[in-house]
Write a structure and sequence with these properties.
This protein has 242 residues and is an alpha/beta fold. The protein is 38% helix and 22% strand. The strands form four sheets. A five-stranded parallel β-sheet has the order 2-1-3-6-7, sandwiched between helices. Helix 5 packs across helix 7 and helix 6 crosses helix 8. The N terminus is likely disordered. The protein binds calcium ion (CA).
């Protein structure tokens, strides 16, 4: 796996390419990510153990860490927590089993997102870009939920409450709500929604988006047919208001 000389590489290099640290012990994934992410314009730095990752992190700060849950010398979950409590570089957890995802989500380890093996490179890259687009402020990395009226959206724990009662959302519904919450008070276009949630795949019927918005309204609005928070901006998209 590529090991660029890291001295002097800060968060991004001068060409604005993001450095991503891939902590992964499976050779097939290492190779695929090295090739795939380089083609996508990232500078890929690889570590196969937590110890190696710590050494690299001590020398440079990547933009993002892709972190496997099961590593030869320890748990990616513990290491994610360590990163979150120290340098706060965003981490995408990579799990091999859905049961690991429950652990990742159940603990407050500060992961920005997660993917489950086997994943498609296109999905991973879309999630990476979405994480990198988020402002790297403490407010976004775990210091509290975004409040919209009586709704609280916790992007780190991926939980939503309305009047302090927990709301169950599907993954797509949550991603959609998170997108709106991140742009609260601003119009989010239909194209932005499709791009963020379906990675611009042409095969997605745009009515799918309306179906998700409708379901989301049924869960967060007092009067779903006449939404107060998640309003339609005719011909453009949607806006989330207080
Ligand atoms: Ca592993």
């Amino acid at each position: 796996m590529a090991r660029p000389h890291l001295d002097g590489i800060a968060v991004t290099n001068t060409e604005g390419r993001h450095v991503v640290l891939v902590v992964e012990d499976e050779p097939s994934y290492q190779d695929a990510l090295d090739v795939g992410l380089t083609i996508e314009g990232f500078i890929v730095v690889g570590a196969t153990t937590i110890r190696e990752a710590r050494e690299l992190m001590a020398r440079a700060t990547p933009s993002l860490v892709l972190l496997d849950v099961m590593l030869p010398d320890g748990s990616g979950i513990d290491y994610c927590r360590e990163i979150h409590e120290t340098v706060r570089t965003p981490v995408i957890m990579v799990s091999a089993r859905a049961s690991e995802v429950d652990v990742v989500l159940g603990l407050e380890i500060g992961a920005a997102d997660y993917v489950t093996k086997p994943y498609r490179l296109r999905e991973l890259v879309a999630r990476m870009r979405a994480v990198l687009r988020r402002p790297q402020t403490p407010a976004r990395s775990g210091d509290g939920p975004i409040t919209i009226g009586d709704i609280d959206v916790d992007l780190v724990r991926r939980s939503v409450t309305k009047q302090s009662r927990s709301i169950e959302l599907s993954r797509k519904e949550f991603d959609l709500l998170a997108l709106f919450a991140e742009h609260r008070g601003q119009v989010v276009t239909r194209e932005q929604c499709l791009d963020a949630l379906w990675w611009g795949l042409d095969l997605v019927d745009t009515r799918t988006l309306d179906t998700h918005v409708k379901r989301l309204r049924q869960k967060i609005e007092d009067d779903p047919p006449r939404p107060r928070h998640l309003v339609t901006v005719r011909g453009v998209g949607f806006r989330l208001d207080d």
